[in-house]
Amino acid sequence: MAIVSKKFMLFAIAGGAGFVVDTAILYALKGVLGPYGARAISFVCAVATTWAINRSFAFKGQSANLPVWREFLHYFAAMILGGAVNYGVYAVLVALIPLVASQPVLGVAAGVAAGMFVNYLLADKLVFKAGPNTSV
Q1: How far apart are the C-alpha atoms of 109 and 122, rounded to whole Å?
Q2: Which has the closest alpha carbon to 9: 60, 56, 58?
Q3: The total number of structural domains that make up the chain
Q4: Is residue 66 part of a domain?
Q5: Does residue 133 form part of some domain?
Q6: Residue 32 resides in a domain
């Protein structure tokens, strides 16, 4: 019996890719939009990235039975709760800890960790509902 499921590991890998996208876009835009506005945009881009990866790997075979664009909207809506946790942790750390303010990647990492479990459960149970023949 595996302690961590293959599906969760694939979800975590997708999250790692989302983290890279999130951080890259944050750093590209923070000079123009500041650390908060840039993070809002980078988060949306990270969600799009993780959705594309998760639907192809972690939740492959778990059809949402929706057109692709609606599936994305459902995924995005589900990620808002985990995203709120993620962004809240990030914002608090940037505001209170000078090291995080100067190195926002630390806040992104803390936020990602805080929101990951919420996002996994929402994706697995609400967006990509397991069908009777799903096994991962």
Answers
A1: 20
A2: 58
A3: 1
A4: yes
A5: no
A6: yes
